Each structure stands twice: as structure tokens, then as C-alpha cells.
Amino acid sequence: MRQKYSDYMNWAKTRSHAKFNLATSGVGSFPLRELPLSIDELEINGDTKYGHLPLREALASKCGVSPDCVVTADGASQANYLAMAAILEPGDEVLIEQPAYELLVSAAQFTGAAVKRFLRREEDGYALDIDEIRRNITSKTRLIVITNLHNPTSVQAAPGVFEQIGALAREAGARVLVDEIYVDAIYENTPPSVFHLGPEFVVTNSLTKVHGVSGLRCGWILAEPELAWAMYRLNDLFGSIPSHPGNLIALRVLQHLDMVRTRARKVVEADRGLFNAFLDQHPQLLTPRTTHGTTAFVRLAAGGSAEFVDRLRAEYETSVVPGRFFDSPDHFRIGMGVNTVMFQEGLRRMGDLLARFRPA
Prior knowledge:
- By secondary structure, the chain is α/β, with parallel strands linked by helices.
- The protein has helices spanning 7-14, 53-63, 75-87, 102-110, 130-136, 161-172, 208-211, 225-235, 244-255, 257-281, 305-316, 340-356, and strands spanning 20-21, 70-74, 93-98, 114-119, 141-147, 175-179, 201-206, 218-222, 285-286, 295-300, 318-319, 321-322, 331-335.
- Helix content is 39%, strand content 16%.
- The relative contact order is 0.18.
């Protein structure tokens, strides 16, 4: 049977919250009052049938593409699903990285595709391994799914690797879906979208994680115009007509994106500094040291991460994301960028548990 639910999203909605919440995946909310916007500029209804054109044009300008290549969606989750559902048929093979964001795997399973995995190994710093992808791609592969920055580790793909993956995809007659939702957390020399590398690339993104405007649900897909139109027609079955006020506010965010991003950057970088200092003090925590992104993927050298996560929440009112949601039960994910005072206290409590924790 097809997968018809997401265990991770259910956990995130119902069980992730704690007084000291390090289970987040994006930055703290941007206050609406700080956005230059008047209520007089909003309307309840408007032309958003296949994407509000000014919003599509703004996204196209941001990404350096034609508006015909932009599909607006209700967040990156819907964007990823629409992209997969438009490309895959039941029985097709989809090749997804491991560890992976659980919702990508669940969405692919819902399409009826046969899900295969390729490893991003901890001992290699979770780098994309072109030989590993080559070993797992077959004549039935129709889609390769990758996150960049990698969710959950925040590792950035090495220069030139996507060109090689694109060549493999062309040879197999497949496409490459790259979720770039965290790429704007590379604050200096932000790389251009891999969409520009060739027609086999399809890219998803959102304002949610890095900019702190999750409630607007402003996601998008970049695809060739014919495929983009197929995604809009598919969304007739699901999203129908998006919220016009939400589209108008999202457009204003894009018009002031530097301001929004700068505000978020201050919190992310403050938290990263605290986290790196915490790692220096606790060598029993193993994780890639990245210079960007809002998440870190951690393993206890002595093992026992699942027990540690449960005790951290129950005894210290501090939550992190269990690694089982990323195919890695011996790990957990920590989120940065919401509230530095809260983050610091959450780390302190984590340190208290580390000092007395002995895995069963």
C-alpha cells in the first residue's frame, strides 16, 4: 500500500514542543509589524488562479529565470510533492539520499514509485558521492532527490558535483529534484540555483526556513515551462486557488528580502557561535562542523542517542529531533536561529545531562 501519512510531521505538530525547543528547523518568526505594509494594500480576493503573476515575477527575478518556469506552492512540502507527482508514475524508481528528510521519502512513497536509497556517509562528512549514486541508478530511475544544504546536516554540496549528477541523470533519462530551501542560509557568496545547470534539474524552495515567514506558505518550484504547467494542472486537484492575501504579503517580503534575511542571520550566527563553543566543551558529541545552515546532526560517541533524546525532554524540558526521522536512530537534529537566550539555556541543560548520562 502507498504511504498515506508522515510520521515526522505528526511528531513535529504534536510532540516536538518543549520549554527549550531545539527541535526547530528554521529561524524564528519575522514580526509582521516590521514589514513595510499597510492593511490598505491587502485584498481578500484577487487573481491567483495559477500563481499571482507579480509574485511569480518576483520569484523569477530572485532566481534568474523566466516566470514561465515558476510554480508557486503552499510551502516547500507541497512543492516537493507536486514535483514528484508530476514526474513519477507508479512503479517508477526514485533514488533518494540517506539520511533524508522523512517527508521526502513519504511523499515519494505516496506517488506509488519504488523508493531506492543512496548513502551520504558520516565518515565522508555526508558528502554527495557520485560513485554511490552511479551504483544505485538503474534504467528504471526517473528521479534523483537531494537536499542542498543537506537536511539534516547542513552540509553543502561540493563544487562540480551537481554537474556530474546531471550527466548521470541525462544518461539514465531521469531528472534531479534538488530541495534548496536552506541555500539562502549561505549568507556570503550564496550559490546560484542548480536549476541553471540543465533541463534535467527541478528545484524546490520556500521562504519558510531561512526567512521566518512560515505562515505565508510561500513555496515554489523551478521547472521547464511544459513541466511547470503540468504541475499547476496537477495542483488543480489539491491546492486549487491559493490565498490572495498570503501572496500579497509574500510579495512584500520578497521586495524587502535583504532586511528579512539580515534579521535572521544575526540570530543564526549567534546560535552557531554558541553551538561551536558547546562542541568544543563536549567532545563526546560528533557532528560535521558547518559554517552555514540552521540545523546540525549529532551523534553521541558512546551511543544511546534515542535514550538521551527522551531523557532530555522528560527531565530537562528540552527537545531535539530524534534521528529515526532521518533514517539514523543513533543521531538527533538540533535547530538554530529561533531565540538565542532559549538556545543557550537548552544547550546548558543538554550539557547537564551529558555530564551524568551513561547509555544503557
